[in-house]
Amino acid sequence: MRELRYREALREAMLEEMERDDRVFLMGEEVGHYQGAYKVSEGLLDKFGERRVIDTPIAEAGFAGVGIGAAMVGLRPIIEFMTWNFSFVAFDQIISNAAKVHQMSAGEIDVPIVFRGPNGAAKQVGSQHSHSAAPFYTHIPGLYVVQPSTPRDAKGLLKSAIRSNNPVVFLEGETLYGVQGEVPDEGVEELIPIGESRLARPGADCTIVTWGRPYYTVLAAAERLAAEGIECEVIDPRTLRPLDTTLMVQSVKKTNRCVVVHEHWPYGGPGAEIVDRLQREAFDYLDAPLERVTGLDVPMPYALNLEDKVLPTEDRVIDAVKRVSYSK
Amino acid sequence: MGVLVPNKDDLLRQYRTMMVIRRFEEEAARHYAKGNIGGFLHLYIGQEAIAVAAAEVLEDRDYIFQTYRDHGIALARGMSVNAAMAELFGKDTGCSRGLGGSMHFFDVQRGFLGGWAIVGGHLALAAGTAFKSKYAGEDRVTICFFGDGSTNIGGFHEAMSLAGLWKLPVVFVCENNQYAMGTPLERTSPLKDLSIKAKGYGMVGDRLEGHDVEVVQEHIAEAVARARSGEGPTFIEIQTYRFRGHSMSDPAKYRSRTELEQRKQQDPVVLVRERLIGLGVDEHALDDIDIEIDEEIDAAVRFADESPPAREDVMMNTVLAPEGGS
Predict the structure, then answer these.
(1) What is the interface size between A and B, counted as CB pairs within 8 Å?
(2) How far is the alpha carbon of A190 from chain B, nearest alpha carbon, in Å?
(3) In chain B, N or C: fewer CB atoms in 10 Å?
(4) What stretches of B62-122 show up as alpha helix (H) in DSSP?
(5) Closest CA of chain A from B126, distance in Å
(6) What is the CATH superfamily name and number for domain A2-183?
(7) Per-residue pLDDT reduced to its tens digit, A212-237
């Protein structure tokens, strides 16, 4: 295995899939000549030309809709939102069109499309640019929602998303683009299936379910807890819809306690869904209430000291694990 | 534009299709009142010349999008009255197997890619199928219908912007029936002539009255030819009028009886009938066509009524497409 950055892993996934299938194209703001607002698509224009790497005006509803229409008749578009915050002006296209037409047409029309881009808070970008978008999209039947935490998952899941025959909401971590991690060597193709969770760290004392940016907060917290003798088992769902609870349930049956850590707001969403499933699927095994460590229930402030309060921290994770472990 | 030379056989065929749409919808209205049809039912009565003209012009391989007022174009494109009526009745034999309803007719085999029910939401999809034609080098034109009410919403602007920018092979047809639901055009737009909007998107604009099926064909044919030859999209405003309310729940109290009666003087179906008689077609022959259509529609109602209900397994199995094969 070699080490790649998260953004490079994503780029490789697109490059390989575009080489493999002429129906795949990339469309979005600044994806071509500018080389990508976050440089994920760097070099793709040179390689594939303007037919397949298509710069758009600032018109998310328009180009999301163009992608959906193109997918309805056989192309396999990758639609890049410069950030998921801007997807909200294309919400109707994703919700009313991409997610619905397969059923409205009694299964006659497929929509093989990937909507991708950076998601979640970055650093001090304020209220309108810090949304963690998973809850909006996980609510919708007819969509897949994928949120990879590591470079390896980013590549393998994006390749699967591009090959999927359904619309995929692909949430990349805005702060994770520079993260380095192991990715299979060149020429070794790895397709990570949509809808399969992953054991990220084994441990016998407490289960932690987490994904996205807090994944790294949790791993750091788990090391600190290990130094105090509490071994956490960390499960990354990787796909938030459909949700695979197999590993989580197995883990909770072993540890008898669980903390769910996510960046999005606490009201509803995949965090609440996981807690609901676990209390039903592992009720008899729980020795403590399920806890959640979440983004605070406020719009994201600008000031750094406040932003640090809003996002899940190692200390909050450690406190929660100790609470469910009844340990000081 | 050439001088109109009416062809009797073409006109007879068009008369027949227009009458099928008219009678289908009149019967649908009756069954809505009886409770056999639920939800919303938006009738196309009065606008039939436009759908029939478009269907005459388009090739089988072309793509069509329409709003929720979609029975007319579906039938004009060749959907069977049985599949259409059964869909309204919510039956498994319907064109969308009872999962779509009146507002979401689909007939993919005939290139009819749907009735769409969010105003302005389907225009970008039409730009998308046109984008695919260009991307794949296919000779397929997309035609997209929408109402005057769509021309104020953002979806219109973004789709028109991209289609104009990329010179996509698409024809945008605004069926201006004068009312955005219950609000007349003079209260929704500062423009009397909507076709001038085309200029803002770098595309050709056109404007015409929509009651004469032959005139409508000429204009749509010109726009389709432009799209086919790679010269880009056209925005056509076709002035028309619906004789019924916005939907079945709308008694249309916002317009006067006089206005309605005046507009009915330009009934597109009557116009074709009179033109055929003028061309020497025996009135009794037209009556025979009408009777035949009545029987077809009656049979469609029986078919819909006797068809099995929509299926739960189909509902559950069509949330997501099967994976594999890509």
Answers:
(1) 147
(2) 15
(3) N
(4) 71-76, 81-88
(5) 6
(6) Thiamin diphosphate (ThDP)-binding fold, Pyr/PP domains (3.40.50.970)
(7) 999 999 999 999 999 999 999 999 99
